[in-house]
Amino acid sequence: MRTIRLIAVLGVTIVVAAGCGSSSKKLSYSAFIDKANTICRTGSAEVKGAKSSDAAGTILSKYVPQLKALKPPDVLQPYLNTFISTTEQEVEALKKNDQKTFDAVNVQNNEAASKMGTKECIG
User: For residue 26, is it left (φ>0), alpha (ψ between -120 and 50) or beta?
Assistant: First the structure.
């Protein structure tokens, strides 16, 4: 269950990306944070319903493309890149039911979310 709870937070993060349109214009700092936090809340709720680590990984994975679609201000791009990378690693760890790897990567994921200012994506 701990894995699922951590995945929920990640899912929320990924959901943040879903709020972005297809526009190539970069979001303002506050718009990026608002969208990211909204997506993270939604994703977290969905992941909480997962019945297994593998199911949580599958749910989480569907949000990665949405995260990649976000266009943050330049100053936040490196943190978003790290967040996406660590989220992808978390997905793989969940699908393998590898709690140790998940926990280690989750620390990095939370640090990236914190640096982005997306408090709803920390978990």
Answer: beta
